[in-house]
Amino acid sequence: MKKGKHILITGGTGSFGSTVVAKYMKKKDVAHVTIFSRDEDKQHAMRQKYGNDPKLHFVIGDIRERDSLRHAMYGVDYVFHAAALKHVPVGEFFPLEVVQTNIIGTHNLLDAADIAGVTKLVLLSTDKSVHPINAMGMTKAIAEKLLVARSRTSRKTIFCAVRYGNVAASRGSVIPLFVERIKAGASLPVTVPHMTRFLLTLEDAVSLVDLAIEKGEQGDIFVRKSPASTIQDLAEVLIDIFDSKSTIDVVGIREGEKMHEILAHSMELQRAEDLKTHFRIRPNGVSFQKFVETAGVNLNAAKDYSSETTERLTKPQLKNLLLSIPYIKKQLGEE
């Protein structure tokens, strides 16, 4: 990243945005950080946290509104697109709202960034966009398609994306719910015991975005390799960490949920670059048959990269990971 640059984060008061702000406020090569979001209360809390630091700017706006985005994009060099409607069950009951934010809003943002000529835009996507079965995943999959399509026509702005699974202890995720229930002495609602989910720390999610900023080319999608855990093991380890007597209540699968999540499907992996800690999925700019012939791809070699087939955390490994998370430390009174 060049020195003295201006970063804009959509949805910047969420878990990811807060972590990015904490990092980039300390970096001397970043001159301005702008938060673009709808929630004035969260913006006010963040403003107070940083003592009205002039390096940090706030814009109230909605990515559904093209004009507010275009005004906010003036002078911006890098954009992190984190704004989205992400709650899977809610999206099943209000799919049009998810479409308006995740698809139309993303289109508006891509358009505004392209017109403004920003250096690079990074879209934050999700494992739920791969073989999607719910409205949230379907809309994020279309958002990725919009980004790749725009990357083929833009002359100034580089459009790329990152895709990762569940960020441990992020706002609205299952870990804060479990901890809240444990502290209340209540049972933990486990959907299906052998359901698996990827686990990623916020710091790892931010480092993946840093990678996209530094090395991303037009249409790239970076996928962070991540370990996984069953929901049963996650609940049991949290009960152990907090020395709780809470029990587990199996409640069944929720609207729009998968048993196992997928971070990259086999067709993508056939054109992906394996970089040890992550995959770099390149846009398919030539006919697939030509790609197969020139690259010598074995169509049967690649399989989906899923939470069922990735590294499975043992309970001791899971406990160590959870104890490294600032949220858990805080709940234990260690911070």
Explained architecture:
With 335 residues, the protein is of the alpha/beta class. It has a domain at 5-164 and 201-225: Rossmann fold (3-Layer(aba) Sandwich). The chain has 13 helices and 15 strands. The chain has helices at residues 15-24, 40-49, 66-72, 88-93, 95-116, 135-151, 174-183, 202-215, 231-241, 266-269, 288-295, 315-323, 326-331, and strands at 5-10, 30-37, 56-60, 78-81, 120-126, 158-164, 188-190, 196-198, 221-224, 228-230, 248-250, 262-264, 272-274, 278-281, 305-306. A nine-stranded mixed β-sheet has the order 3-2-1-4-5-6-9-14-13, with helices on both faces. Helix 1 (15-24) crosses helix 8, helix 5 (95-116) packs parallel to helix 6 and helix 9 (231-241) packs across helix 12. Residues 286-291 have low confidence and may be disordered.
Features:
single chain; 335 residues; alpha/beta; Rossmann fold; nine-stranded mixed sheet; two-stranded parallel sheet; 13 helices; 15 strands; 19% strand
Give the arrangement of secondary structure elements.
Elements: E1 5-10, H1 15-24, E2 30-37, H2 40-49, E3 56-60, H3 66-72, E4 78-81, H4 88-93, H5 95-116, E5 120-126, H6 135-151, E6 158-164, H7 174-183, E7 188-190, E8 196-198, H8 202-215, E9 221-224, E10 228-230, H9 231-241, E11 248-250, E12 262-264, H10 266-269, E13 272-274, E14 278-281, H11 288-295, E15 305-306, H12 315-323, H13 326-331
Parallel strand pairs: 1-2, 1-4, 2-3, 4-5, 5-6, 6-9, 7-11
Antiparallel strand pairs: 8-10, 9-14, 12-15, 13-14
C-alpha Rg (nearest Å): 20 Å
Q: Which class do the helix and strand fractions yield?
A: alpha/beta
Uncertain regions spanning at least 5 consecutive residues? 286-291
Order of helices and strands: EHEHEHEHHEHEHEEHEEHEEHEEHEHH
Report the sheet-strand fraction: 15-25%
Helix content: 40-55%
The major pleated sheet works out as:
9 strands, mixed
CATH level 1 name of the domain at 5-164 and 201-225: Alpha Beta
Distance between the termini: 32 Å
CATH-defined fold name of the domain at 5-164 and 201-225 = Rossmann fold
CATH architecture of the domain at 5-164 and 201-225: 3-Layer(aba) Sandwich
